[in-house]
Amino acid sequence: MHPAEQRFEVHILDTGERYACGGSQTLLAGMEALGRKGIPVGCRGGGCGVCKSRIVRGDYHAAKMSRACVSADELAAGVVLACRVVPRSDIEIEALDRMRRCVTRHLTPAARPPAPPT
Fold this sequence. Notes:
InterPro entries: 2Fe-2S_ferredoxin-like_sf (IPR036010), 2Fe-2S_ferredoxin-type (IPR001041), 2Fe2S_fd_BS (IPR006058), Beta-grasp_dom_sf (IPR012675). The protein is α+β, with helices and mostly antiparallel strands and 118 residues long. It has helices at residues 27-32, 72-76, 97-103; strands at 7-12, 18-22, 52-57, 60-62, 79-81, 85-87, 91-95. The chain contains three helices and seven strands. A five-stranded mixed β-sheet has the order 2-1-7-3-5.
């Protein structure tokens, strides 16, 4: 099967949610398919930074994104913009900054994971 036709499981560590994402679909598009409010969507082109996340585990392809949003050092540490990443395997992702605030908004305070170190 061609990688673009494959489906991979994406696990959002902050909420415990899992969703299927196609090999030609961005992580952000897959999140939107969850059909729940609170998924932040901005420019979809890698320039606004609202979907900033960290890939904790898994292989992916990252398209060009603004260095004002993700530095070269951050990119090397797995920090990406979900609108510019397509999976190449199952992925674990951690939301950062505005994305984290948005995706965890529906959780009770006791259920919210602690903020990751920056």
